[in-house]
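Q: Hi! Curious about what MCE family protein looks like structurally. Here's the sequence.
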Amino acid sequence: MKRDNVNYLLVGSFVLLMAAVLFYALYRITGHSAKGDIYFTHFPNVAGIKEGTVVTFEGYEVGNVTLVEPVTRDQRTWFRITLNMRKPVNVPVDSRALIATPGLLSPPLVEIKEGSSRDIVAVGGDIPGDSSVNLMESVATLASELGKITETSIKPLLAQINQNVAPAMADMRSTIERINRTAGRVDALFSDKNVEHWNRMLQNADGASANALKLSADLSGVRAEVEGLVKDSRGIVNSSGKDLKESLRRVDATLYQLEAAGRNLNEFSRTIRENPAALIQSRPPTDAAAGAAQ
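A: Let's find out. The predicted structure is below.
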């Protein structure tokens, strides 16, 4: 029994020793214990920055953050970040330190953007901190803006679309119902019974067309007969033209005599009106032939 306790003690001690070695190795691997050049920078917001945060110089890892502490600067609270630069680099005085997030799931880090000045920041000096955009804050801001847009623009637009679409859908349903009724009427119109009726009508139409053709042929024959009759009438008129001309000449002579008698009658009436006594005292007319004989 005593020997079992000793074995348990040895095994437990070995496990604890290995755990300590593992934690020490991890501590050494992360470089937290390595000493390098110390620099400082200040930020008004250090969300996500803590001891052990990686420090990069133009994307190249050069150290880590060893301390984050609040300080009063320009009558407001800032945060002084102690940078442990394990790898020696020359930082120009116009360089800027900012908090960057390499990826959506990556932890934030302190990124140093190299300046163009020839003057170098001395060890223990201050690297100016620059305001940076936090990815998560940007996503949150974007979500907030999208929420505002949804409330102020998209929802009223959807409500307006719903108001306009509802009457259109009602009209569409009414149109579909009318189309269905019309389709039923068309089906009834072209039922088997009606189709037979249409076929009989078409057959009757064919018979009527044949009768019309026959009537047209008969009318053509009548027309030919009428044309022959007209030709015969013209021949009769031409043959009796001379007799008609003689009759017209006689009628003209008779009309001329009637016109001369009318003139004489008018002259006699005028003479009687001017001298009524001439009717009583008139002398018998002299025979022109007898006077010529004497």
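A: A fun detail: Strands lie at 37-43, 54-57, 60-73, 76-85, 96-100, 109-113.
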